[in-house]
Amino acid sequence: MLRLCLLSLEREQNVAVAYNAGVLGRRLAAMPLPDDVRELIRCALRWVWKDEEMHAVYMRAALLKLGSPLVWARTRVQQVAGATGGWTVSVRQHVRWSEAPFTRAVATLLLWAGGATGRVPREVWPHIDYCSFRSFCRYNVDTEGTAWLCWRRLTELAPHAPALSGGQVAEFRRVAEDEDRHRQVFKILADALTDDDRLREGVTAEGLAARIGAVGDFFLPQKTACISSGP
């Protein structure tokens, strides 16, 4: 369970950086979408991003609460690894070489280092490169599904490790439910877009809002109080 907690911390910190409002906001601004659709996507992803930030804070606090110097050190290492990985993925997926050659070069070196140390499986490499926004969403359908499996397993193990879980099975279950909602949101967005990041024929802002709202109305603009600078 401790290994799963450390893994989940790294993953949550990773996406808390990778879903950063600044990067995704700039990407959305450049996409050929109607303004109302762009705002729907921006607000849905901003809520996902804030969720992931809170998950990372929650898991870090749960680990540090154990008071073990070894766990403290491992927690900090996993957190830094997650943040570094998230930055690398964000740059590789959303920034072209022509836009920021030095930044892309640093991200590529970090990706190679991760591959050499076994932290980045070769199977993942094709997905960590500049791609359409639709491909980005499809990739995150899989990553959010994996996160859901991890948190669900933690929920199953928590009653057997009260010293680590602190009896907070309900909190683990709530995070698992968050991850499943995120997976659904990314799938809805992927289904709504074409490979050149245009709105698929027949998709409307009203229909997209209805599908996102069915997952959770807090993903919609009037519930998230979105600001123009973030997704």
List the helices and strands and how they pair.
Elements: H1 2-18, H2 21-29, H3 35-64, H4 69-94, H5 101-116, H6 133-157, H7 162-165, H8 169-192, H9 205-215, H10 221-224
Structure in a nutshell:
With 231 residues, this protein is an all-alpha fold.
Protein architecture, described:
The chain is mostly helical. The protein has one domain (2-224). It has ten helices and no strands. The longest helix has 30 residues, at 35-64. It is globular. 33% of the residues are buried.
Write down the overall mean pLDDT. Answer: 89
Strand content: under 5%
* Strand tally: 0
Task: Give the biggest sheet.
Answer: none
Q: Helix content range of the residues, please?
A: over 70%
Give the CA-based shape: globular
Look at the helices and sheets and give the structural class: mainly alpha
Number of domains: 1
What order do the SSEs take from the amino end to the carboxyl end, as H and E? HHHHHHHHHH
Quaternary structure type? single chain
- Sequence stretches where pLDDT stays below 50 over 5 or more residues: 227-231
Q: Note the gap between the termini.
A: 33 Å
- The helix tally amounts to 10
Radius of gyration: 18 Å
